[in-house]
Amino acid sequence: MPEISQSLIPAGAYRSLTRNYHTIGLYNFAIAHKDLPNDFIYKIVKEVFDNREELMKAQSSAKETIPINIDRDTMLPLHPGAVGYYREAGIAVPPGAVVGN
């Protein structure tokens, strides 16, 4: 499952954590209803990636929020609007990831 990867919670992240804690991490995915308009979903995906620096200010783990990481998704179908964004950006869409609208 490529959605799961090695992860580290650094010492001091919580008061009780006095040493690094090795664990697993799971990529986050935004989920939208398949009936939402394609252009709306396209705009949301584009805004997220166009404003990644702002997102990282709020959450440092957003550094992993890059279009190429779509290949980590092997379990959720992609909305056609998101597929449009990825294809326009030249990112390969995982086989079988597209769902009809």
List keywords for this structure.
single chain, 101 residues, alpha+beta, 3 helices, 2 strands, 29% helix, 12% strand
- Tell me the number of strands: 2
Radius of gyration: 16 Å
Average pLDDT reading? 87
Shape: elongated
| SS summary, helix count | 3
Structural class: alpha+beta
- List unreliable stretches of 5+ residues: none
Helix content: 25-40%
Provide a compact summary of the structure.
The protein is α+β, with helices and mostly antiparallel strands and 101 residues long. The protein has helices at residues 38-50, 52-58, 80-88, and strands at 4-9, 21-26.
Secondary-structure topology with pairs:
Layout: E1 4-9, E2 21-26, H1 38-50, H2 52-58, H3 80-88
Helix pairs in contact: 1-3
Write up what this structure looks like.
Helices cover 29% and strands 12% of the residues. α1 packs across α3. The chain has one domain (4-88). It has a two-stranded antiparallel sheet. The mean pLDDT is 87. The chain has helices spanning 38-50, 52-58, 80-88; strands at 4-9, 21-26. It contains three helices and two strands, in the order ββααα. The radius of gyration is 16 Å and the shape is elongated. The longest helix is centred in the middle third of the chain and has 13 residues, at 38-50. With 101 residues, it is α+β, with helices and mostly antiparallel strands. 10% of the residues are buried.
